[in-house]
Design goal:
By secondary structure, the protein is α+β, with helices and mostly antiparallel strands. Helix content is 21%, strand content 25%. It has two domains: 121 residues, no CATH class; 156 residues, Cupredoxins -  blue copper proteins (Immunoglobulin-like), CATH 2.60.40.420.
């Protein structure tokens, strides 16, 4: 996130710090879903919607602090968001969070911002979970993975083994905006063999917006909201979003899956607008 969008998120953070309860009567109405979605199994607060533990406690504390005894807490139209159903609606599970699938974040959360990624990045900046330092992130984003063959001219990374481990650095400050850096390349095409065990560590290096990474089957990566039509290609192949970095470090999460089916897929940032702006590339599972 560069300076033109950083100014916008500063305003969003200021609204958050002041307390959003005053805006509770404004904006789009978000109805409670009929039932919670199935929780994901990814071992990261931002990727898992399973109520309980430090991630859920942070969510409830954050919401309680921001909205106090207003309609959120008093059983009004947004009271459902304080519980497990609201947590899963916002955090995602086996499917993307609802705000990535066409349901707008409530107006009292958005404030004056038009970018849900900025709002969620600010709100979850202090969420629990693994972190890495800026120096570690820079090293990992440039490190060539074991067993990988790079073609820098073609901007490709090819793995021929059964174990694939790599790091994707989201929107680093010294690179193009809204891109992934992997092994020192920007949005490289990645190829793995069928049956490979794939592990991707995702690090959010962007100071002003949330980012995630998902391997998708189908969908339109050029659309503003690709998760309206796309789904994770494999169980476990999504980290939906990570909060902004803080002095404690950059948020990191690891997605792990087995590339069971040969085909042409995409990896992309599922936060609305980010794939459209460049955070996407080919992910191929080869049968040979």
């Amino acid at each position: 996130m560069k300076s033109t969008r950083l100014a916008a998120v500063i305003g969003a953070v200021a609204i958050t710090a002041a307390g959003l309860a005053a805006l509770a009567g404004c904006g789009t109405t978000t109805k409670a879903p009929a039932a919670a979605t199935t929780p994901a199994t990814a071992a990261t607060p931002a990727a898992s919607a399973t109520p309980g533990g430090s991630a859920y406690a942070y969510y409830q504390t954050m919401m309680g602090r921001l909205y106090g005894s207003g309609s959120m807490m008093g059983g009004g139209s947004y009271g459902w968001m304080m519980g497990a159903v609201g947590y899963q609606w916002m955090m995602g599970g086996t499917a993307a969070p609802a705000w990535m699938r066409g349901q707008a974040l409530p107006g009292f959360m958005m404030g004056t911002s038009t970018d849900p990624g900025q709002v969620m990045g600010a709100l979850f900046a202090n969420a629990p979970g693994p972190r890495v330092s800026a120096a570690q992130a820079a090293r990992l984003g440039s490190q060539v993975p074991a067993g990988a063959t790079l073609d820098r001219a073609a901007n490709t990374i090819t793995f021929t083994g059964t174990s694939v481990r790599l790091t994707a650095l989201a929107s680093p400050a010294d690179g193009p905006d809204e891109t992934f850096r992997i092994a020192g390349l920007t949005d490289p095409a990645i190829s793995v063999n069928t049956g490979a065990q794939v592990s991707i560590e995702v690090i959010n290096a962007d100071p002003a917006t949330a980012h995630g990474l998902v391997i998708t089957a189908g969908g339109a990566p050029s659309s503003w909201m690709p998760m309206l039509t796309a789904r994770p290609a494999f169980p476990g192949s999504a980290v939906w979003f990570l909060g902004n970095p803080t002095p404690a470090g950059m948020h990191a999460a690891t997605l792990s899956f087995t590339a069971t089916t040969a085909g042409s897929y995409r990896y992309l940032c599922p936060v609305p607008g980010h794939a459209q702006e460049g955070m996407t590339a080919a992910f191929t599972v080869s049968s040979t």
